[in-house]
Amino acid sequence: MKSSLQSTAVVGAGAVGSFFGAMLARGGHKATLVGRAAHVDAITRDGLQLHRAGRVEAVRVAATTGLDALRDADLVLVSVKSADTEATARAIAPLLAPGALVLSLQNGVDNADTIARHVGQTVLPAVVYVAVAMPEPGVVMHYGRGDLVIGARTVKRAGADGAPQPQQDGLAASMQQVVDLFAAAEVPVRISDDVIGELWSKLLVNCAYNAISALTQLPYGRLAAMPEIRETQAAVVREVLAVAQADGHPLGAAASTAAMEGIAVAMPAQLSSTAQDLARGKPTEIDHLNGFVARRGAAHGIATPVNQTLHALVKLAESARTAP
Fold first, then answer.
1. Same domain, yes or no, for 41 and 172?
2. Distance between CA atoms of 39 and 163, rounded to whole angstroms?
3. Mean pLDDT score across all residues of the chain
4. Three-class SS state of 102
5. Distance between CA 303 and CA 295 in Å, rounded?
6. Cα separation, 35 vs 40, whole angstroms
7. Cα torsion for 202, 203, 206, 211, to the nearest 10°?
8. Number of domains in the chain
9. Which range of residues forms the domain containing residue 213?
10. Which residues in 54-138 belong to E strands, given as ranges?
11. Which residue among 227, 232, 236, 309 sits deepest, i.e. has the most Cβ atoms within 10 Å of its Cβ?
12. Strand pairing of 122-136 and 75-78?
């Protein structure tokens, strides 16, 4: 059966969005990046310069600064910063095609729900595992991985006879089309029965690394090499586990610790996205990482002193670097 996914638009084409849009384009799929003017101009002039696997490839991919590209897209990848999700959702809502599928390729656990409050189309959360950076407009550096996990925002129950409900069955078919589309572009995508739980697992890892990498401007491998930092990360993990449990998403302690430790092995040279933002004087997503855990912890009466401290320190550094 021919896929209904013929055209993709990437909203908020920074390093992550540009990487996945470029992978689709180099795989022969029609993709359009919606980004900032300097980035768009560089891509239009020279193609997107993708540094990957030891070589540089100029990927010819459409790019624009306007959201009109969404009108003909049947797949929309939202890759804006979490703080911009609400405004972006409002802006794209009147432009989306009736049958469009929207994927949230963002940090944090609640972005897909935020988008869904404003659009009538199906919105899927995606857990993003990729190490990338955009050192200058039109250039994306790929350091590791490049895969996605997708799933429904809520778990759909089977009917009384045990068969999937029609809505669930239709959603499963749509998700499989996403898997097939990205597979043709050499991007592995896995469908999860509990994507929100997996977003919490990703949040846990981000909380353990992003703020510390940002404050020190050091890559993951350097953080993991110091026992005192590993103990701080372990304390972050314990706090996130407690908050996730209270929020209805219990995570395995051993698996979570292994995942946290494994990131430094898989991506030793990676600076966190928070570190990259801080270095460039850009607003970070720390409110949606350690700050989110601190807020949810407070709501449940759970103490999160390490996450609170990391959140506060990044906010202080952020204010110093963005001050006029």
1. yes
2. 48
3. 92
4. strand
5. 10
6. 6
7. 180
8. 2
9. 195-322
10. 55-59, 62-64, 75-78, 101-104, 122-136
11. 236
12. unpaired
CA distances to 45, 103, 202, 208, 260 from 230, rounded to whole Å, are 45, 33, 17, 9, 10
Measured distance CA(174)–CA(168) in Å, rounded:
10
DSSP-derived letter for residue 272 is P
Structure tokens at 71: 């009108």
Burial (Cβ within 10 Å: 0-12, 13-18, ≥19) of residue 191: middle
Whether 134 and 230 share a structural domain = no
Q: pLDDT of 165-201, one tens digit each?
A: 434 668 999 999 999 999 999 999 999 999 999 999 9
Q: What is the pLDDT of residues 128-146, one digit of tens each?
A: 999 898 999 999 999 888 9
Q: Are residues 186 and 166 in the same domain?
A: yes
| Boundary (domain end) residue, out of 169, 191, 213 | 191
Q: Which of 230, 231, 232, 256 is nearest to 243 (CA)?
A: 256
Q: What angle do CA 69, 72, 77 make, to 5 degrees?
A: 65
Query: In angstroms, rounded to a whole number, what is the distance separating the alpha carbons of residues 179 and 191?
Result: 8
Token code pair at residue 55: 């070589």
> In this structure, are residues 289 and 212 in contact, taking their beta carbons and an 8 Å threshold?
no
This prediction has a pTM of 0.89
| Rounded Cα–Cα distance for residues 76 and 103 (Å) | 6
Asked if residues 272 and 293 have their Cβ atoms less than 8 Å apart, the reply is no
Return d(Cα 126, Cα 103) in angstroms, integer.
6
Closest alpha carbon to 142 in 129, 155, 154: 129
Q: Scanning the structure block, which residue is given the tokens 């199906």?
A: 122
> On the CB side of 149, how many CA atoms lie within 13 Å of its CA?
15
Under 8 Å between Cβ of 290 and 314? yes
C-beta of residue 151 within 8 angstroms of C-beta of residue 195: yes
Q: How far apart are CA 19 and CA 142, in angstroms?
A: 8
Amino acid at residue number 107: N
Partners of 123 in the β-ladder:
102
